[in-house]
User: Which sequence fits this backbone?
């Protein structure tokens, strides 16, 4: 059997997921360490909008950025697949990916409503 | 809410456990995390679900990045099934108030037990071994029909497979989506057996593909919890850090584990989840 090169879709999606988990993980770790160093054990609930609010503890805001990066990483992975399939003119796969993104967006909008 | 040092360490340990288990068998771990956070840590259900969703996404991107790089994930199969899961999730969210969650939990638990037994009694794993080579090769996938090949570390062979009976996978994924919308679970516990038993996809590919899918599913739910302000970063962060470590360890074991061992672990997890669901719904 001939040797195969990594699938471009696999390579790019792996890079996106790895980037998300390294950057998000580092921010979560930094937030936890900041909380330990400052001795601030508070863990309030935050919204994304609270990131700019000075009254929220710094360690919680850093952790929240990490959570937000985690939350967006899978969707960015699907977008990366979409780009690869667009380049490869795989219309059926593209259609499926777009439909998935539309349904997920609809769910998010309904959920927020 | 205060997260002191013992709680912080407890959250990390819980994350390591659920992350390793989730990465190993392709589930998110929400069925373990939510009861643990509410019963052992005393958090309210919304805080627990929000933290669990962060952990599920953490499991997915950690395990997914490794599995995708090795060519174990079939991305086309993942999104084809995700279509049904997302539709099911939307349906579950919309009709959630019309169906008794207690009845649904019991039916779902029975389904998990039957699936667990089928997994234990099932014949050997599917897939055709096509070459023996000492050198690892990246896996690949085919679009139409859905299939591909992956490198099996345990036997040092390339295994070629083809997904069959797509309607079975779509149907179960739709049900998994409804269960996700109604019960707040990722649905990996249904999708992995559906791919393996129903579609003849090797269990390693099924678990890896499910790992990738659960992150996409959980993102939708997590965005709602982020918008409504239910996420406590101080709870989610140590949990997710534990998950990252556990998922990395789980993926290392999964690539070299025997399919039989993975199916047995999955079967045990299914039965355990069924018991937890019945106990939760009754109590």
Assistant:
């Amino acid at each position: 059997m001939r040797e195969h090169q990594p699938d471009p879709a696999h390579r790019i999606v792996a890079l996106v997921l790895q980037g998300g988990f390294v950057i998000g993980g580092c921010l979560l770790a930094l937030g936890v360490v900041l909380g330990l160093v400052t001795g601030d054990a508070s863990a309030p609930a935050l919204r994304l909008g609270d990131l700019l609010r000075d009254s929220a503890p710094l360690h919680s805001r850093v952790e929240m950025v990490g959570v937000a990066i985690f939350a967006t990483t899978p969707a960015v992975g699907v977008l990366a697949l979409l780009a690869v399939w667009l380049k490869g003119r795989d219309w059926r796969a593209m259609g499926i990916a777009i439909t998935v993104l539309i349904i997920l967006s609809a769910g998010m909008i309904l959920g927020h409503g | 809410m205060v997260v002191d040092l013992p709680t912080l360490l407890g959250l990390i340990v819980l994350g390591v456990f659920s992350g390793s288990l989730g990465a190993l068998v392709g589930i998110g771990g929400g069925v373990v995390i939510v009861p643990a956070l509410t019963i052992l840590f005393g958090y309210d259900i919304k805080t627990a679900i929000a933290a669990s969703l962060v952990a599920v996404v953490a499991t997915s991107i950690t395990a997914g990045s490794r599995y995708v790089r090795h060519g174990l994930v079939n991305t086309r199969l993942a999104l084809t099934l995700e279509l049904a899961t997302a539709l099911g999730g939307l349906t579950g969210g919309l009709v959630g108030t019309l169906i008794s969650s207690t009845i649904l939990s019991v039916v779902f638990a029975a389904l998990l037990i039957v699936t667990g037994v089928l997994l234990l009694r099932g014949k050997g794993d599917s897939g055709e071994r096509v070459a023996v080579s000492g050198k690892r090769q990246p896996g690949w996938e085919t679009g139409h029909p859905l299939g591909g090949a992956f490198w099996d570390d345990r036997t040092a062979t390339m295994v070629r497979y083809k997904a069959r009976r797509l309607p079975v996978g779509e149907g179960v994924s739709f049900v998994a989506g409804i269960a996700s919308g109604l019960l707040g679970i990722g649905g990996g516990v249904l999708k992995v057996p559906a791919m393996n038993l129903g579609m003849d996809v090797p269990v390693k590919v099924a678990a890896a593909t499910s790992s990738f899918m659960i992150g996409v599913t959980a993102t939708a739910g997590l965005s709602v919890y982020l918008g409504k302000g239910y996420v406590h970063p101080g709870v989610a962060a140590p949990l997710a850090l534990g998950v990252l470590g556990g998922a990395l360890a789980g993926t290392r074991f999964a690539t070299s584990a025997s399919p039989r061992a993975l199916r047995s672990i999955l079967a045990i997890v299914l039965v355990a989840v069924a018991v937890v669901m019945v106990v939760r719904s009754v109590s």
